[in-house]
Design goal:
Chain lengths: 295, 181
């Protein structure tokens, strides 16, 4: 009886002691207040294919964006499958805060100048504060320099050249490799040919990204234009791409049926039929510089 | 017999709950020096516990809370190197030895235990200091972490930006656990 009891004591003692040994880290975890973790890098760049992503630049970051779209690959050998012709957009974007960014750009397609603002309204998060989506609002104003006044078919005024696009970008990073985004958009063009277009065009976009390695991802983007007039000659923009990230650079190699690189142009004036071979190769190359250091 | 048993259990319980210290403030820094750039980051969100009786120490560092001077560094650190969505915390659990209790002022000590970074746990022995001041204990240490030891890979294109090893400096101030409540 006595022997049994002492065995029990030793056993109990060792259990208690063992607990004290092992559980300091567990005890610490229990003491930890639950925190909120915000999702980072839903997409690699502020551009998905032609359009925008929910991403904003960090505070004090300046991004130089150089994008171009070649001619259609079905133009054959004479145009070297489109590589002989390229339209370029050169742009800059700056992060005023981690949430608020501003940008300017010039696209040689339609000689368009643009300026825009983006603001991250909601950040996807897990933990104490749960939020399933990241939502960014995006607004851009564009001024189309072409055609020249003397070449225009009517008495064109500067106000006729303006267009505006508003977008709500709603994204969810489903896992570290998979992200989805919805982009309800509205384009307002001050002056249009009413037989073919409306002044206001609503487009609903969807896109996504699948990472295939730490630095390479596959992307896609499609916009569906709602309630398009019957005589409208344009197509819905569709694109596929590969994102390659190397430090401060992101290279995006894309295939798309549009050549425009501002919202007005690719949302409402996409000229190519993707499934008829009117596909344009293109690149978006971004380089990020930290202009102002974070404290 | 039962009384003795009860007494032992009580004593054990007391020792478990009576001597714990929690971090009041903490700082974990790391520094990497490579051909292209120096990278430094600071994290003040780590929490730790120190058991005065057994000299055991444990701490936990939330990886996403490291702050960098460049936003892109933080993104890459979390996404490419630490994979913080998978491995959200780095932890240490071990014992501090080689110091004398009751001495006021800083003295050398050694921490021996298990360091977990990027999901990889390794046995480490790191030098540091421990300081008993009025009502608080300050533990500091500086040590080197080799990325390869913790399966942290450097993309080939970026190897010039990232050092093979980083210097880590931890600085914890502990106060008795009850005072926190």
């Amino acid at each position: 009886m006595m022997k049994r009891n002492s065995t029990l004591i030793v056993l109990l003692f060792s259990i208690l002691f063992a607990n004290a040994q092992q559980d300091l880290l567990n005890e610490l975890e229990r003491e930890t207040k639950s925190t909120t973790t915000y999702t980072a890098a839903t997409f690699k760049s502020t551009r998905l294919i032609n359009g925008q992503t929910v991403e904003t630049k960090g505070k004090g970051e300046l991004e130089f964006i150089f994008a171009h779209r070649f001619g259609a690959i079905n133009t054959g050998f004479y145009e070297f499958f489109g590589l002989d012709q390229a339209y370029v957009r050169i742009g800059l974007e700056y992060g005023l805060t981690d949430k608020l960014g501003v940008g300017v750009g010039r696209n040689s397609y339609d000689k368009t100048m643009d300026t825009y603002v983006r603001y991250k309204i909601i950040k996807q998060s897990a933990g104490e504060k749960k939020m399933p989506f990241t939502i960014t609002a995006f607004g851009i104003a564009a001024y189309k320099v072409s055609p020249k006044k003397e070449d225009a078919t009517y008495d064109i005024q500067p106000v006729d050249r303006m267009s505006y696009t508003g977008q709500l970008l709603i994204a969810r990073k489903i896992s570290s490799i998979l992200s989805f985004q919805l982009m309800p958009s509205i384009v307002h063009k001050n002056t249009v040919d009413k037989t073919k277009e409306n002044n206001d065009q609503i487009a609903l976009g969807a896109g996504g990204r699948l990472k295939v390695s730490k630095s390479v991802a596959l992307t896609t983007e499609y916009y569906y234009r709602v309630d398009v007039p019957e005589a409208n000659p344009f197509y819905n923009p569709l694109g596929f791409g590969i994102d390659i990230e190397t430090g401060g650079h992101v290279f995006q190699l894309v295939m798309t049926n549009t050549r425009g690189l501002t919202e007005r142009a690719f949302l409402t004036e996409t000229a190519g039929d993707f499934f008829n071979g009117n596909i344009h190769l293109g690149f978006n190359v971004t380089r990020t510089f930290q202009i102002k250091r974070k404290k | 017999m039962k009384k003795i048993l009860l007494l032992i259990i009580c004593t054990c319980s007391l020792s478990v709950f009576g001597q714990k210290y929690m971090t009041e403030k903490s700082s974990v820094k790391f520094f990497s020096s490579a051909a292209v750039e120096d990278i430094a980051a600071t994290n003040i969100m780590a929490i730790g516990m120190f058991d005065l009786e057994t000299s055991e120490i444990a701490f936990s560092i939330p990886i996403t809370e490291f702050k960098f001077v460049k936003s892109l560094m933080r993104e890459h650190f979390n996404e490419k190197y630490m994979e913080s969505e998978k491995f959200s915390k780095s932890t240490f659990q071990g014992k501090i030895t080689g110091y004398q209790r009751g001495i006021v002022g800083s003295q050398a000590a050694t921490a021996t235990g298990k360091l977990t970074i990027h999901g990889v746990t390794r046995d480490v022995v790191v030098p540091g200091t421990i300081e008993f001041a009025s009502g608080q204990i300050v533990v500091k240490s500086k040590f080197i972490v080799k990325l390869v030891d913790y399966s942290i890979t450097r993309p080939q294109l970026l190897w010039k930006n990232i050092a093979e090893q980083v210097e880590v400096a931890v600085d914890f101030t502990f106060i008795p656990h009850d005072e926190k409540k």
